[in-house]
Sequence to fold (250 residues):
Amino acid sequence: MIVADLAGKRALVTGASGGLGLHFAQVLAKQGAHVVLGARRIDAVNDAAEAIRAAGGDAKAVALDVTDGASVARALEKFPDVSIVVNNAGIATPAAAIDLDEAEFDRVIDTNLKGVLLVAQASARRMRDRGEGGSIVNIASITGLRVAGQLAAYATSKAAVIQLTKALALEWARYGIRVNALCPGYIETPLNSEFFATEPGRALVKRIPQRRLGRLEELDGPLLLLASDAGSYMTGTTLVADGGHLVSSL
Ligand code: NAD
Fold:
């Protein structure tokens, strides 16, 4: 029987002020989780938490900069009972590799890779100490499995997240903690819809076998599979939701 009931579970979503992160928080709340929305500025998630409560869910906001160990520790002190973590915070700063700025490269790796480790580690220590296990879902990307132009730093960080996911899964299985990576393809959000309306954007969509962008709600099933007991025998996996983009014809 498939079980995606998250009633009573505390779930932390990083980078939850908009885009995928906000959607993930709403989906987890609908399944009964007590959701914590993390963002660098707490006022960026206060309203979203309020909206989830108004819709009958349970949600709280927390200030959380994933690149800062002290900030991560403070957030986890407030919510020590977290048993589901969605490592969603991420940045992409497109640039030709030949011109890639050292500081920008550091910023991408700090956020997308070190941030995942810091949040996973702080959460896993508490899960281990409570002895109840948990599930960590790291949001990677299809660019962690195949490259795209102008995205050297981003693609490298996401490939590393996939490998980090496997390493953590191996070491933490003994604590009942599952760690998996979710690799979305191109999902339409308010931030990228302008690009996909341009000629290069439309050309990109034509290369996706399903000939369209993904919708946010098409990540709900994969997210809930990994976050809930429906995926209880899955750890160290990489789950792709991309309309077939990774199998596009060479
Ligand atoms: P987005 O820019 O809307 O969301 C990223 C969030 O991370 C933002 O809310 C941002 O404020 C937050 N963030 C950045 N740095 C942070 C930090 N140091 N601490 C805490 N929060 C921080 O982008 P999105 O499209 O919603 O992407 C969400 C995740 O999904 C990212 O990891 C991204 O790489 C991944 N992803 C997105 C797509 C897509 O098509 N949209 C595809 C594959 C993967």
